[in-house]
Design brief:
A hairpin with a 2-residue loop joins strand 2 and strand 3. The two termini are 39 Å apart. Among the domains are: 81 residues, Regulator of K+ conductance, C-terminal domain (Alpha-Beta Plaits, 2-Layer Sandwich); 75 residues, Alpha-Beta Plaits. The chain is built from 27 helices and ten strands. Helix 7 packs antiparallel against helix 11. It is of the alpha+beta class. The chain is 55% helix and 7% strand. The strands form two sheets. The chain has a five-stranded antiparallel β-sheet with strand order 3-2-4-1-5, with no helix packed on it. 54% of the residues are buried.
Length: 623
Amino acid sequence: MSFSAPALSLQGVASTSVTVDMLVVFAVILLALVLFATEWLPIDVTAILLMVLLMVLEPWTQISPREGISGFASPATITVLAMLILSTGINRTGIVQKIGQKMAAYAGSDQRKQLAATIGITGPISGFINNTPVVAILVPVIADLAHEGKTSPSKLLMPLSFASMIGGTLTLIGTSTNILASDIAAQLGEQSPELDLQAFGMFEFTQLGIVVFAVGSLYLMTIGVRLLPERVPVEDDLVEEYALQEYLADVVVPASSSLIGQTVGEALGDEELDIDVLQLIRYGERFDEPLARKEIHENDTLRVRTNRETLERIMDAEGLTLLGGPQSEEDLHEDDEEPVLVEVVIPSGSFLVGETLSSSTFRQRYDANVLAFRSRGAVVRDRFEDIRIRVGDTLLVQAPPDSLTRLVQNEDFIVAHEFDDVNYRDEKIPFAVAIIAGVVALPALNVLPIVVSALAGVVAMIFTGVLKPNELYKSVEWNVIFLLAGVIPLGTALQQTGAAALLGDAVASTATFLPVIGVLWVFYIATGLLTSVISNNASVVLMIPVAASAAQSVGASAFAFVLAVTFAASTAFMTPVGYQTNLFVYGPGGYTFSDFLRVGAPLQLLLSVVTVLGIAFFWGLRV
């Protein structure tokens, strides 16, 4: 069975009367904005809910079941799926990591070189590999570069995210937003030929992307770096950074204690106590995880994580003797061990998203202790077992080296530290590079559509051994796929009910006191603000039909308006939740919400002017 693409048209452009159908669609959109902004539900669940609502309300939304699920068959959805797999293939070869290591060797301890290398490497790579996995790969590389070069990671990680966003504007495949915008533009052009819209070419807007990247890079190298605070100390000490000294303690078990003879799990495993035993020391020998079944003996030293109130209660009840506690990372492990304390960022698609530490059995799976929890800039050091985990949350984890290696190799986590013993398929680098080159070249030469080229690239990666067949499904961020499939019908409803035309006419009315370029700038700013609180893909779906309608109303180029919306949605700098890569650096950079606003708002404003002027220069604004 095959499904047709969503039918998008610009019906009722001249009409400004509000209908019941429009009001119903506006209500669904309002619900979508609230759910995306508040994160009451995961974004993919919100998208499916919207899809169901649109189909249930078919008499008003005009979305049939066939149209409701057509987002799953959209070329944009399939192309994004394929590009995520191709990005994983590149990751498996270790080529990005190798480039990062060469970058670190070049930069050394010179902060300007470090920043220039971060931006100069991240941007161009993000033009040809989906920028989200690029940032996930480079977070540990840049964090280590910063610490080794005696620079605060806060000075480099936000520029890493921002550079990936502006680098994503270089080509069609740089971001999922570009691919989705291209698909929507093609559908609008097919339904309304007078708009003169079609799918974007691979390098359709590269000249503008180069200008945006150059201006954005200059800002980050000059103004941006001065606005960035040093939230994380230059010294690579996570105990001090998370202020854990008051939550870590060494206690000795006396002969009179009732803990003797019990296992650690039996004695201190009660979740209500909120106490973790990190290490057991017996006559100089250290025992780490798993400790739950380790029997406690007289004179054992237990290293515990808990708050002072709980510690005092346990000491009073059991007669334990306080020895003090770790004051730095060095106190947590032997000098000859690998680092056992790392930050772990939760990416989109992780099994931990929506779970708690208790429900996920994270500790049991990885023999790991979570010492602190950072969510949306706030650090929690105790009673975090039942906090629901969201994308971008950061866990401060202590675990044996073999467990940390398993965490590094699991795509459910971004470990903000590089490990030397990770095995990459470096012998497959030539194949991976050739495949990506083919995926880019074939659509650019109009030999194959991008969706066919990308899927062919996936097959080629399997045949050449860059990827194994069982890695295909693990490579896809399914929440992104469901998000795309869920919001595409929302754009269809916006069109078919005339709601897009109504909004377009409303914005077009500003042409009575603004020139066309001013109306274009309004769309850029509106899209940027919308993307700051909801998904960038949802912003594109909602804004492109309205922008095309407004362009038609004022006699302007629909392509110019669509391109402005696309660039604005791809460069959401002002909040950490506006773009997924911002969430990846939020925790390891130690940023607060206001840091993104302080550094990102001037950049957003600057690029709004540059982009609008660039569109006018390269393509013109009139039909």
